[in-house]
């Protein structure tokens, strides 16, 4: 039976949400404040070139006029693919708080 939960509360995302973001390229003293700050601007499904490496989702957020990046990965590739599709179809252009409120039914 599928699990229905807000994205932020989903059992498989407990260690991934809220995301922890890398600093923008070339900026050494500008940090994302953590939590659900910013707007989801892009997600990308990435299949690594190296055999045996798991696919991952590359997530881009804009906050305070800067772009931040993080990645989500999981051994459960089917779950990760559904998460990617949900973020792509229902999360891009929304605040991270709104993304955290998305209901996942998988």
Mind explaining what this structure looks like?
This protein is α+β, with helices and mostly antiparallel strands and 106 residues long. It has one domain. Helix content is 19%, strand content 26%. A 3-stranded antiparallel beta sheet has the order 2-3-4. Strands 1-5 form a two-stranded antiparallel ribbon. Strand 3 and strand 4 form a beta hairpin. It is globular, with a radius of gyration of 14 Å. The termini are close together.
The secondary structure category is alpha+beta
Low-pLDDT segments, ≥5 res: none
Spell the H/E element sequence: EEEEHHE
Form type:
globular
Largest sheet entry: 3 strands, antiparallel
What is the oligomer described by this structure? Answer: single chain
Counting structural domains, the number is: 1
Please supply descriptive tags for the structure shown above.
26% strand; alpha+beta; three-stranded antiparallel sheet; 106 residues; two-stranded antiparallel sheet
Summed up:
By secondary structure, the chain is α+β, with helices and mostly antiparallel strands.
């Amino acid at each position: 039976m599928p699990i229905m939960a807000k994205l932020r509360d989903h059992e498989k995302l407990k260690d991934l949400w809220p995301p922890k973001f890398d600093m923008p390229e070339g900026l050494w003293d500008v940090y994302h404040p953590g939590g659900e700050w910013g707007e989801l601007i892009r997600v990308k499904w990435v299949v690594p070139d190296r055999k045996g490496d798991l696919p991952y989702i590359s997530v881009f957020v804009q906050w305070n006029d800067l772009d931040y990046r993080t990645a989500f990965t999981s051994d459960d590739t089917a779950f990760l693919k559904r998460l990617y599709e949900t973020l792509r179809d229902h999360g891009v252009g929304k605040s991270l708080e709104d993304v955290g409120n998305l209901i996942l039914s998988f």
